[in-house]
Structures are given as C-alpha cells and as structure tokens.
Amino acid sequence: MSTPPPMMLHLQTVPSRNGMLWIRHGFKVFQRRPMALAGLFSLFLFVSMLLLMVPGVGVMLLLMALPQLSLGFMLATHLVLQNQTPTASVYLMPFKLTPERRNTQLLLGACYALATVAISYLTGWIDGGSMDELQKLMGEGASADKIAEAAANPALLWGAITRLSLAALLSVPFWHAPALVHWGGQGLMQALFSSTLGVWRNRGAFAYNALLWGALIMGLGLSGSLLAGLLGLGQVLPILAMACGLLLSTVFYASLYFTFIDCFMFGAPGDLLKDKR
User: Cβ distance 156 to 134 under 8 Å?
Assistant: First the structure.
C-alpha cells in the first residue's frame, strides 16, 4: 500500500444548517451499503466486549481504540462515496502509512484514554461514589425504593453534569484529530489544535447537529414505546431499541466524514452531496 502525501486542508466556516446536512448525508451513505457499515460497527462492539474481558489493560485498550473508530468510519464513508464496499481493513489502514503517522495515532489514543480515566476519577470524587453505588444496586436487582433513593442523591446529579460537560469538552480536540493525522499528516499537538479550531469555527453547525441528534433519539424512543404499548408488544421493545441503537450509531459515525470535509475543505466525491448549501 503506497503512502499518500499529506493533503492540503483549509479551515473554513459553514452555515449552521449544515448540521442537518451531515445527518442527511449519513443516512444516504448508510442506504448505499447498510450491511457493510452496520457490520463494521457490530464488529467494533464485538471487539470491545472481548477487550473488556482482558484484565488490567482491557479498558485502556478500548478507550485507546475509540478515536480510531471514528477514523475507521470516515475511511469507510470515503470508500462508499467511491462506490466501493468497506471492510474491516479500514480499522487497520491508519497504521499502514508512515511510522510517524502510526505513532501519532497511537499517541492520540493514549492521550484520549488517559484523559477519559482522569475525568472518571474526578467525577467519582465529585459524586462521592454515588454513581458506582447506583450501578451496583441496579446490577444486583435491588428494590425500586433503594434505587430511587440512590438516584435522588444530589451529588449524583452534579457528578453526571460534570461528567457530561468534561466528556463534551474532551471530544472537541479529538473530533477531527485522527483524520488530520491520516490525511493531513499533522503532528499530535497540531492535530488537536486544528480540530479544536475547526469545531469552534463551526460551533453553530455542531450545536444544531447535536440538537437534531438528541431530538431524533428521543423521538424514536418515545414513538417506539408508544407503539409497543398500543400493540401490546412490550416484550419486543428491548429488541427494537437495540436495532434502532445500532442503526443510529452507524449513521452517526458515517456522518462524521461530512463534518470533516466541511470544516477542512477535504476533497470528497461530490455525487452524493447534491443538497444546496
């Protein structure tokens, strides 16, 4: 496999309405290769479960792999746009380039894992271990009263707010960083800075995109619950929820490619992108 030279990437600002276009393009790409893309995400879930079974380092390895999940789906989407069928090899492509880019990808994963662990320890200190206690009670099948009492702990709310806020902030520098290393040949700090700048310059589109994803997830969840209740199919609700979760997760990761090409003017095939901006 020949090593592609670093591509010229130019930071640009797009309208907020592009936040909706990213989702629409994600669904269009999924429609082209639904089984291949869903299979890629299912494969990652399977490997994740195997990693969690590895004592000691399993969790860290899984956290290190998360940035490569987003890059793998960007590569998969890029292939779909060229009328090719992506395979599991997309997860290995970033490590087959130059040693410098491979090492930078590994450093990105390590930094993301360490930062995530730091956030976990910090939020655990803020909530006083109330989240762990709630999860323990739920896992043990405790009574509803005990679970409700644990969930009512004010520290749990502040810990959850802190966890979500810090996780959102952490995602900003890592959002485009793997792609900037892979296609742009950027170093670790440059990629993190460029990703942060790209998200900030297009914060309106990203905020709109996040709101739409939230509305879509809640809308599908509510519709599924109402439909299952009306038809008396409550027993199949978990199966429906799992299928919808797989669908939306796959589409979400497929849409990441379009956030990248919009923020950095990356040259993507244009036959799919027919929406007027």
Answer: yes
To which residue do tokens 């591509």 refer?
7
Tokens encoding 239: 């199966």
What gap in Å lies between CA 49 and CA 241, rounded to an integer?
Answer: 19
Residue corresponding to tokens 């679970």? 147
For the stretch 39-92, pLDDT in tens is 999 999 999 999 999 888 999 999 999 999 999 999 999 999 999 999 999 999
Q: Are 102 and 94 in contact (CB under 8 A)?
A: yes
Q: What is the C-alpha separation between 254 and 29, in angstroms, rounded?
A: 7
Pull the structure tokens for residue 59. 């969790």
Task: Choose the weakest-confidence range: 113-117, 178-182, 202-206, 236-240.
Answer: 236-240
Backbone angles phi, psi at 107, to 5 degrees: -65, -40
**Residue with tokens 């929820």, as numbered in its chain:** 241
| Tokens of residue 42, six digits | 């299912």
Query: 259 with 176: CB under 8 angstroms?
Result: yes
Q: Which of 82, 99, 81 lies closest to 26, judged by CA?
A: 81
Tell me how far apart the alpha carbons of residues 238 and 242 are, in angstroms, rounded to a whole number.
6
Q: What sign results for the dihedral spanned by CA atoms 50, 56, 61, 66?
A: positive
* Nearby residues of 172 by Cβ (< 8 Å), 6 or more positions away: 195, 196, 199, 200
Cα 82 from chain centroid (whole Å)? 23
pLDDT digits (tens, 9 = 90+) for 138-164: 666 666 666 676 666 777 778 788 888
Separation CA 84–CA 77 (nearest Å): 9
Separation CA 269–CA 79 (nearest Å): 10
